[in-house]
Design a protein that fits this description.
alpha+beta; six-stranded mixed beta sheet; 24% strand
Length: 237
């Protein structure tokens, strides 16, 4: 199974825009980007994808491999110890919890196939892409395809290196952003807090030292709507 998609636009385009200047020492929570969208259709068009530099393409290949149930220690090291992973089911706020999530995926899914992605933002410290992934469950003969907008906030200290790392990984599967409040958020956090500690994989234990990484309280945004959640509408079509 291929774990990368190299269909890209003909010219590499990296914006000099900095979203997190001089912030490398701050924990992952400080690197959240906020946005809503006109619709929840994040279907990628790979032919329109912004071409990335070799170092950034290597990062993308590792992230897509993680989504495709191909976790390795080196791929999890793409995240800083104080990283945050935030999606509709999980809020993991250090690399130990993150490792638990990635290494748990192959136990839940027989296969996860990347159907294509489209890089839509390539700032100096932020990569955003539309992603399409088909997940086949392990215990029931059913597959589901999910389109999402993925935002990778990059560690400013690594953006010019050969091994770029991620501070905040957000995966949005609908048009709203996350509120970080209510029972749903508490379940997301509880799930991430407990999965890693119940994993017996030696690969997860490698990251036990990251449990003490710097953290901030999750930012609470009210609703996930544009006005109340401080999440401006952005059109990624």
């Amino acid at each position: 199974m291929s774990s990368s998609n190299t269909t890209t636009a003909p010219h590499e385009t990296t914006s000099p825009k900095e979203n997190f200047p001089n912030m490398s020492s701050q924990p992952g929570e400080a690197f959240e980007v906020r946005q809503t969208a006109p619709s929840d259709d994040y279907t990628p068009i790979p032919a329109n994808s912004i071409k990335l530099s070799p170092a950034r393409q290597a990062l993308m290949d590792d992230i897509i491999a993680l989504y495709s149930c191909e976790p390795t220690i080196e791929r999890v090291k793409r995240y800083t110890p104080d990283c945050v992973y935030d999606d509709q089911f999980v809020y993991a706020n250090d690399r130990y919890k993150m490792a638990g999530q990635w290494f748990a995926l192959p136990k839940l899914f027989r296969e996860s196939k990347n159907e294509g992605y489209e890089v839509v933002v390539n700032d100096k410290d932020l990569i955003q892409f539309k992603n399409e992934q088909t997940w086949t469950f392990r215990l029931i003969p059913k597959s589901t395809t999910i389109n999402a907008l993925v935002s990778l906030s990059l560690d400013p200290a690594t953006t010019s290196s050969d091994f770029i790392q991620v501070k905040y990984h957000k995966d949005q599967a609908n048009d709203k952003d996350y509120s970080h409040s209510g029972l749903g958020f508490h379940f997301k956090k509880w799930q991430a807090d407990n999965v890693a500690k119940h994993m017996d994989a030696e690969e997860v234990k490698v990251f036990e030292g990251d449990k003490g990484a710097g953290k901030m309280e999750p930012k609470v945004w009210g609703s996930g709507a544009a006005e109340e959640g401080k999440a401006p509408v952005k059109d990624f079509t």
